[in-house]
Amino acid sequence: MKEWWLQVGLLGVPLLAVYLHLPPPQLSPALRSWKSSGSFFTYKDLNIFYRDSSGAVGSSDVVVLLHGFPTSSYDWSKIWEGLTQRFHRVIALDFLGFGFSDKPRPHGYSIFEQATIVEGLLRHLGLRHQRINLLSHDYGDTVAQELLH
């Protein structure tokens, strides 16, 4: 009985090896559609996924959507069409480490870096000096507070 850890190791190591080599699951049709309607921009050699849709004619309002933890820009999929009816432009990104964006390891993730990435996206889209509406929840709230600061 004193060698129980050896038995656990002999069983656990092969199971872990199998788990680490399993292929990732297939994306649902909805997620495939979400990804195919988006784009990527590069931030410090890292690929950041985003969606950018034109919407309401006659409006000049832009809204940037900041998702929660541990999800992605897909959080906004159910209200995306409604937002495009209200705003001229609707933009959402997957924060670094989330969704379709890169997930570097090891990496010192921070709220400050996520806010800098949002600013980089706005520069990339030519919106650096335009008035922006922010809609956020959960983790995105903290990033939004940093952006407002």
TrEMBL record:
The keyword Repressor does not apply. Keywords: Signal. Residues 62-140 form the AB hydrolase-1 domain. One of its GO terms (biological process) is acylglycerol catabolic process. It comes from the Eukaryota. Pfam families: Abhydrolase_1. Residues 1-20 form the signal peptide. This is MEST protein. It comes from Cisticola juncidis. The gene is Mest.
